[in-house]
Specification:
Its EC number is 3.5.1.28. This is N-acetylmuramoyl-L-alanine amidase. GO terms for molecular function: N-acetylmuramoyl-L-alanine amidase activity. This protein has 309 residues and is an alpha/beta fold. It folds into two domains: 74 residues, no CATH class; 200 residues, Peptidoglycan recognition protein-like (Lysozyme-like, 3-Layer(aba) Sandwich). The chain contains twelve helices and five strands. It has a five-stranded mixed β-sheet with strand order 3-2-4-1-5, sandwiched between helices. Helix 10 crosses helix 12. About 17% of the residues have low confidence. Bound molecules: zinc ion. Zinc ion binds next to loops.
Length: 309
């Protein structure tokens, strides 16, 4: 008898629950936070709700209590930081109704670095200590070993203060790849071979345009010089990652060619022209890396600009 009563109760409760969910799912109009709270608080289990956070009514995906109230005495873990971001990503001044078609944002650039360190172990340790505040998605050793340290969809902290075209938050747009290298040495073949394989996977998986494979020095010319002058940008371009020019067939630029405009169109931040030119020469001219464009440098710049942009 008791069992029958329990079954009936469960059945009735399930009907109430389904009906309420259906009512919300079918609603095409914006839901006022107070409406949702008023309608559902009779059966929703104990969840810390506030009028600011109606998102959690049916399936709480974030804890609505501000983290500073829960973790006021200690440093947040990375997971807690992400949780806090999800909470603050909800605009308090707007009503909430959940869309059902979405996924995570995907990368559209690859930024290549050298580590300026002496071993892959040292780099991994750097990315795991609290005070460093830097990270990358991948680290590739001199022997070609590839270590992934963040999911491709997560935002690594590798670009720092940087700009490319009109993009001022490269970390949000990109995957960061660190090559184990002390900053003054060539990159061994096994390391480059592993890099090429990884780039091929990333390019296909996320449909990244070939022009969007660039170096840290490209996006931060006043602060960075990586990857160093030994990095084989020409080989990469031949495989479809980044840009290069045909040394055997260079077209002369017209008399009114403006090199600074061309650098800007390619993506360089020209607010410091000398730094932008130096970054361009380190990558494409390789020798005599300075802030002055020779006639030959202008010709190379024109050919890259004309070929890709
Ligand atoms: Zn870097």
């Amino acid at each position: 008898m008791k069992l029958n009563l329990l079954c009936v109760l469960v059945f009735v409760l399930s009907l109430v629950g389904c009906g309420t969910k259906k009512q919300i799912l079918q609603s095409a109009s914006i839901i006022k936070p107070v409406d949702i709270l008023g309608r559902l608080d009779t059966f929703v289990p104990a969840v810390n709700l506030t009028l600011d956070s109606p998102i959690v009514i049916l399936k709480p995906s974030v804890d609505t209590l501000p983290l500073d109230q829960r973790f006021s005495e200690r440093i947040l873990t990375p997971e807690e930081k992400v949780q806090e971001q999800k909470r603050t990503g909800i605009h308090k001044g707007a009503d909430w109704t959940s869309a059902i078609h979405y996924d995570l944002r995907k990368p559209n650039f690859v930024i290549i670095h050298h580590t300026s360190q002496n071993s892959i172990t040292q780099t991994i340790r750097t990315f795991q200590v609290e005070h460093s505040k830097v990270s990358a998605h991948y680290v590739i050793g001199r022997d070609g070993r590839v270590v992934q340290m963040l999911n491709d969809y997560e935002r690594a902290w590798h670009a720092g203060r940087s700009k490319w075209g009109q993009i001022t938050d490269m970390n949000s747009m990109s995957i960061g790849i660190e090559l184990d290298n002390n900053g003054r040495e060539p990159f061994p073949d096994p390391q480059i071979n592993s890099l090429l394989l990884l780039l091929d996977t990333l390019k296909t998986k996320y449909t990244i345009p070939h022009t969007n494979f660039i170096g840290h020095a490209d996006i931060a010319p006043t602060r960075k010089d990586d990857p160093n002058v030994f990095f084989p940008w020409k080989l990469l371009a031949e495989r479809g990652f980044g840009v290069w020019y045909d040394e055997s067939f260079l077209i002369q630029p017209p008399f009114n060619f403006n090199p600074v405009d061309a650098l800007k169109i390619i993506g360089y931040d020209v607010s410091n022209e000398e730094a932008a030119i130096r970054a361009f020469k380190r990558k494409f001219i390789i020798k005599e890396v300075n802030g002055i464009l020779t006639a030959y440098d202008r010709t190379v710049l024109y050919n890259i600009y004309k070929r890709y942009y």
